[in-house]
Task: inverse folding
């Protein structure tokens, strides 16, 4: 079976656009020229809806799914309203270094003909050179991560005195517990009145409540109901035992030769070990996670952009908000604990109307998690059979574990082939291909195994 052939057929829904030209949104000529040169023909829905209230000076809370051009949605008005004579007049806060660079470069691209200077500031880069550049350039717009922004502020390099506008990109992350205190400190230092624009792909009630504390009668914009869906991504899950995941991934990468694949793992450790394993088996692979030196991270993102990589194994933190076109496949090697993270991950593919495939490795105990993801994403994720792959034997330590420690009775088995689903069916209807290695279970799971399906693997 050639999985990769299906990828174009599925893509019907395109990035939603509305038929208003950029020039009708009230943006100045120089900004519109930059937009035209970037090749954007029409504003996306979020851009069309959010730009007018931002230009009117309102506080705005905007939600639109990943890949819908939220950067330009706040970047264009900042360029339009910018005053070249005022340094540090607007602050755009983002959660990661990569995103700081990306947002800055998008603003520079769109602002080519507009005399507004933008500069990214983020940790990991030598402080002295960043300060030197900052003082020389006196940027009007600052795109920064909270830590480095506070650092430059505390050193007296970055003054908040002129800040008139603050953007929180990926606001759900920025007001999440990890950054909440930093944001409180930074925003607390900004003189009022100031304009606040917060955007994200997902905004929970809690985040909205927190956001409103900073905002004055904000306009809330939610583009398309169920904005959490990333529908043009062809999503599938593959049932796999934890100990078979490496082999399955290697198999998929070798047999299917995807273009550009982003593989997500939960921890930095897994990222490193998996990348090493793939490398040893002849796959050209790079890893991307928060503990890597910044120069290395930058070089990988650069290579990713120029299309010089084929497989990147990443942690969530490093890949958040990353906009790289041409990612054909996202593989969730580890399913994320938080369903929202799933949405962010798969949003790395199918950018700006392109097609994309997302596969998730799901082990027997992750059925509930997969269901939670489906509920949030408002989509049914079908199982992908992969009969070409032969699972390995159950490792001895796992077998011993299974003998010793029966799982609780209600432990779900593989989702689609859970005990009830299978045993209610007539034997003749059972598709042997549904079972890894072609082994069709021949009876209900034994009680002594606590409901865990017995297989003949490894005998
Ligand atoms: P988001 O922040 O919503 O995830 P980005 O701002 O990263 O999305 O934009 C996703 C991609 O869409 C980028 O490559 C960007 O250059 C492109 N893009 C943005 N606006 C438009 C537009 N109006 N027309 C075409 N492409 C666009
Ligand atoms: Mg974004």
Result:
């Amino acid at each position: 079976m050639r999985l990769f052939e299906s990828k174009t057929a599925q893509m019907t829904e395109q990035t939603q656009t509305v038929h208003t030209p950029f020039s009708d949104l009230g943006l100045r000529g120089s900004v519109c020229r930059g937009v035209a040169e970037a090749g954007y023909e029409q504003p996306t829905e979020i851009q069309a809806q959010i730009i007018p209230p931002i230009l009117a000076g309102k506080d705005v809370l905007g939600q639109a799914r990943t890949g819908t051009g939220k950067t330009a949605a706040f970047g264009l008005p900042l360029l339009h309203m910018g005053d070249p004579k005022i340094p540090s007049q607007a602050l755009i806060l983002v959660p990661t270094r990569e995103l700081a660079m990306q947002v800055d470069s998008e603003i520079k691209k769109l602002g080519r003909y507009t005399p507004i200077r933008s500069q990214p500031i983020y940790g990991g880069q030598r402080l002295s050179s960043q300060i030197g550049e900052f003082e020389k350039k006196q940027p009007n717009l600052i795109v920064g991560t909270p830590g480095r922004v506070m650092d430059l502020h505390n050193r007296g390099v970055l003054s908040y005195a002129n800040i008139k506008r603050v953007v929180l990109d990926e606001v759900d992350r920025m007001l999440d517990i990890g950054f909440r205190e930093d944001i409180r400190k930074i925003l607390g230092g900004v003189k009022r009145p100031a304009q606040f624009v917060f955007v994200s792909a997902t905004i929970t009630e809690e985040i909205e409540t927190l956001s409103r504390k900073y905002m004055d009668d904000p306009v809330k914009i939610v583009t398309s109901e169920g904005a959490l869906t990333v529908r043009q991504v062809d999503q599938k899950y593959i049932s796999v035992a934890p100990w078979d995941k490496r082999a399955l991934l290697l198999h998929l990468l070798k047999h299917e030769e995807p273009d550009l694949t982003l593989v997500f793992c939960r921890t930095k450790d897994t990222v490193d070990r998996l990348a090493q394993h793939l490398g040893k088996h002849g796959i050209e692979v790079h890893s991307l996670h928060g503990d890597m030196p910044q120069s290395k991270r930058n070089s990988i993102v650069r290579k990713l952009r120029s299309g010089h990589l084929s497989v990147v194994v990443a942690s969530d933190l490093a890949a958040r908000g990353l906009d790289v076109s041409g990612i054909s496949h996202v593989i969730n090697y580890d399913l994320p604990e938080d369903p929202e993270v799933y949405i962010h991950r798969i949003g790395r593919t199918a950018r700006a109307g392109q097609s994309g495939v997302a596969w998730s490795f799901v082990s027997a105990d992750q059925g509930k998690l997969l269901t939670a993801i489906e509920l949030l994403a408002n989509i049914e994720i079908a199982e992908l059979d992969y009969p070409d792959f032969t699972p390995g034997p159950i490792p001895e330590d796992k077998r011993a574990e299974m003998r010793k420690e029966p799982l609780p009775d209600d432990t779900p088995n593989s989702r689609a082939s859970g005990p009830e689903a299978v045993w209610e069916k007539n034997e003749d209807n059972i598709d042997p291909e549904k079972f890894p290695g072609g082994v069709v279970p021949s009876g209900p799971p034994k009680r002594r195994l606590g409901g865990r399906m017995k297989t003949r693997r490894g005998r």
Q: What stands out?
A: Residues 4-226 form a domain with the Rossmann fold fold (CATH 3.40.50.300). The chain has a mean pLDDT of 80. The longest strand covers residues 233-239. The chain has two domains: 4-226, 230-383.
